[in-house]
């Protein structure tokens, strides 16, 4: 089973060295490490190319330029992922955001889970840090490794924050990720409704919380806003995006002829309704002041 450790990057010159160096320290081999740039206007590609030229480890390093550069934000990331999927020959894709990093044995333990349990998707516990890389909190579900349910994913945020890996066959069934829907909203529930989402409780990935108006995730954009109205506008957009993600999950299950079990269907609908209610509340806050909502970065 071939593995690819993928780092899709766009204007991440400041953070990408940390991500790439963590890829180079992975203990799994043989493996392909894919450093892919999507129309960066800073030195992201040059930084990746320089690091790749100095790598002397056991794995293959591939540099890519994704030519699909029109879409920005999450929509751009989804197209970037699809570009990688179409151009990299691997069975398992281990995803690493260009502004996060992975612990050295992440890939090895993720591949072990694929080989032993044959799931569609594998996630791990996440260490959240600040911009100084100081630990702040931990994202995990329970003490034991194992398959998680749709309700686990929704209520405990299992599978979020970019510590994810999926099998090519799974992506072929459910991809490409539609529009500006977040991969960590769309892929985990569909995996749980397929061959399964296997979760490793060990801390194997680190997520850097940082404020950035150009961040792919709207949480980082919201934190970068300096006034309350702008924060509300980003929160309204974020609620819409997540709700759209759960709608996309339900639409895809219908398209594939999947009938979710009663508990999974209830969990999806409950969360979808809750998000839509909150979205309406935020839209009222903006609309009653005669203020237009923020445009989605596309």
Strand segment count: 10
- Number of helical segments? 10
What is the number of domains?
2
> What is the helical fraction, as a range of percent?
40-55%
Radius of gyration: 19 Å
**CATH class type of the largest domain:** Alpha Beta
Beta content:
15-25%
Give your account of this protein's structure.
There is one protein chain. The protein is α/β, with parallel strands linked by helices. It has two domains: 3-208, Alpha-Beta Complex (Spore Coat Polysaccharide Biosynthesis Protein SpsA, Chain A), CATH 3.90.550; 218-287. The chain has helices spanning 16-24, 44-53, 73-87, 106-117, 150-156, 168-174, 183-192, 218-224, 228-256, 262-287, and strands at 3-9, 32-37, 60-65, 92-95, 100-102, 121-129, 135-139, 146-148, 164-167, 197-208. The chain is globular.
Itemize the secondary structure elements and their pairings.
Layout: E1 3-9, H1 16-24, E2 32-37, H2 44-53, E3 60-65, H3 73-87, E4 92-95, E5 100-102, H4 106-117, E6 121-129, E7 135-139, E8 146-148, H5 150-156, E9 164-167, H6 168-174, H7 183-192, E10 197-208, H8 218-224, H9 228-256, H10 262-287
Parallel strand pairs: 1-2, 1-4, 2-3, 6-10
Antiparallel strand pairs: 4-9, 5-10, 6-7, 6-9, 8-10
